Amino acid sequence: MVGTKIDGLVVSSAVREQVKKEVEHLKSKGIQPCLATVLVGENPASATYVRNKQKACAEVGIKTKDHKLPSTITQSELNSLVDTLNKDSEVHGILVQLPLPPQCNEFETTSRILPAKDVDGLTPQNAGLLTMRKAALKACTPSGVIELLQYYSIPVEGKNALIINRSNLVGKPLIHLLLEKNATVTIAHSKTKNLSDVCKSADIIITGVGDRTKFKLTKEMIREGAVVIDVATTRLDGKLVGDCDFEDIIQKASFASPVPGGVGPMTIAMLLKNTITAAGYGRN
User: Fold this and answer.
1) Is 98 exposed, middle or buried (0-12, 13-18, 19+ CB in 10 A)?
2) Known catalytic residue: 120?
3) Please, are residues 98 and 69 in contact by the beta-carbon 8 Å criterion?
């Protein structure tokens, strides 16, 4: 069998169109949604990510406030900027691009953001609310995965869902989002034994290792008709790839997402969605 491609470009476009309508609705009420971006240092990849997010905001009518800081900034100075943005009534969402330079603590920085402006869903309060099914602002990439599953009407309830990632950005939030959909969730990581066997027992595999030297998911490792969503991004021979080769995995999977063009576009789309959610209730 040859499965169906999960096209993140198509799904993200649908999300953006809905966001655009909601932005227009907010504007009619006198609310101009605004996202503040904070970029520390000159990391080319981070600069590209922020630029893409700002471009996406402009396309749907969300205003952005750009803050570029030197790599020598102190934690105290960064805290001061976050405090200023927290108090700015025109700013509804705050995005601090990670990673930060070594002298700045990521947890201290993201935890300082007001939960109502936390469009990445990383504050302890929003992470905690997620476990209780009360979060309005949820981590973007995991939310994008759920959006893909819903768009393609892929059944989740009662399915064995395997997450190969335990990060705060992807794996941990996904546990709770999948549990909300009544999936039976297993989380795997670098210490998991017999991972290949664990993969073969899963109906849905969401993989996000991001290091082909350590892990590659092949069609021999999945059951016939499994759903595979590849969250990973890494460089291999100069090309952007995920944890699996799409053309290989799609020969056995019922649905599979490619890299690029799968989950990546969804992350930005869900950031836009979070920003308008924050604009709806996050005003000071």
Assistant:
1) middle
2) yes
3) no
Residue 132 has which token pair? 């209780």
Closest CA relative to residue 104, chosen from 189, 177, 41, 11: 41
Active site residue 53: yes
* 84 phi/psi in degrees, rounded to 5: -65, -45
Catalytic residue among 54, 97, 117, 216: 97
Contact by Cβ (8 Å): 249, 228: yes
Q: Give me the pLDDT at residue 284, please.
A: 38
Residue of 53, 216, 219, 252 marked active site: 53
* Candidates 63, 118, 120, 243; catalytic one: 120
State which amino acid sits at residue 242: G
| CA-closest candidate to residue 23, choices 274, 264, 268 | 274
Q: Is the dihedral of CA 204, 175, 167, 70 positive or negative?
A: positive
Structure tokens belonging to residue 251:
């020969």
Q: What is the mean pLDDT of residues 18-47?
A: 95
| pTM attached to this predicted model | 0.95
**DSSP codes, 23-82:** HHHHHHTT---EEEEEEES--HHHHHHHHHHHHHHHHHT-EEEEEEE-TT--HHHHHHHH
pLDDT grade, residue 282 (50/70/90)? very low
